[in-house]
Amino acid sequence: MNRYQLDARNLLCPMPVIRTQNRMCELHAGDVLEVHCTDPGALQDIPAWCRISGHDVLDSRIQDGDVIVIIRAGGPAGPQ
Q1: Which is catalytic among the residues 13, 25, 37, 50?
Q2: Would residue 71 be called left, alpha or beta, if left means φ above 0 and alpha means ψ between -120 and 50 degrees?
Q3: How many other CB atoms sit within 10 Å of the CB of residue 55?
Q4: Do residues 31 and 78 touch, judged by C-beta distance below 8 A?
Q5: Which neighbouring-strand residues pair with 37?
Q6: Residues with Cβ < 8 Å from 44, sequence gap 6 or more?
């Protein structure tokens, strides 16, 4: 398992979700991605995308003005 960060700050909907989706495609099952956003809608949008895509949200919160969503990649994703 590897841990990565994605800076999606100062992007408006739907870009934080799209950037998250693109980055998750590069990860392997079990890898963890910590996404930092400033768009408050991402607090609901990214977890909703994760449910549809089979990824697990480990944590989601607002901290120091940033929306932070921590995701564990599920299933056979990423480069094989």
Answers
A1: 13
A2: beta
A3: 24
A4: yes
A5: 8, 67
A6: none
Q: Tell me the per-residue pLDDT of 44-68, one tens digit each, with 9 for 90 and over.
A: 999 999 999 999 999 999 999 999 9
The H or E element that residue 59 is part of is strand 56-63
Q: Hey, where are the domains in the chain?
A: 3-72
Round to whole Å and give the CA distance between 31 and 74: 8
- Is 13 designated active site? yes
Of residues 7, 6, 1, the one with CA closest to residue 73: 1
**pLDDT > 80? residue 79:** no
Give yes or no for residue 80 having a pLDDT over 80: no
Domain 3-72 has CATH 3.30.110.40: yes
**Distance separating alpha carbons of residues 58 and 10, to the nearest angstrom:** 23
